[in-house]
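Chain A, query sequence.
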Amino acid sequence: MNTTELIGIKDPNIIISLVFATDTHIEIQAKLDYPAPSYPHCHGTMIKYDFQKSSKIPLLEQAGIPTLLRLKKRRFQCKNCRRVMVTETSIVEKNHQISNLIRQKIAQLLTEKVSLTNMARRLLVSTSTVHRKVDQFTFKEHYDKLPTVMSWDEFGFKKGEFAFVAQNYETNKLITVLDNRRQITIRNYFLKYLLKVRQKVRFITMDMSGAYNATSSKSFPKCPNHY
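Chain A, predicted structure.
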């Protein structure tokens, strides 16, 4: 296994030139380069141009140490229309600097009662970035399926505020993240599911106030068990 695979990068077009440790994190310097494609707009021939200024892309921790990728992306220029195009990679969305691995890690940490401030510190991103990513999470809410066993929890969302998270207890798959933990918000969300769907829920685990037992009992009539 090569170095890029060890740090979770599976793009063969990313070539690492230097890896070193600082007092706070591991830094990786690399370039993204591949043969010039045809320009998709005018189908003209493109030539290799230069490299962009390095993008700072946070990666997952390595041995518990925050890791940062400084990636230079190749630019191409069309010989026909002179327009410029930049190389793309699957590790980060176009025009973004937060890797998809970090986005997935944020989703995971939501289920571990990690505050957004601590998430930002661990992942080498700003707190506002974590807030934006939480706001951007979308769930395929068709309201036609719920697990037999659910897990309810809360986490620090903003200073002095808590959000609500529900997930499949057996698979840890997120069901929803609500921006507050008020009972009426939770109840109104789950009442979007048909009664026959809610009746399939038999157990709910929660590390929250016992007051939520009333909310869950009203929403899930066949779920008398809470842990």
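The chain has a mean pLDDT of 82. The chain has three domains: 12-92, 98-137, 138-226.
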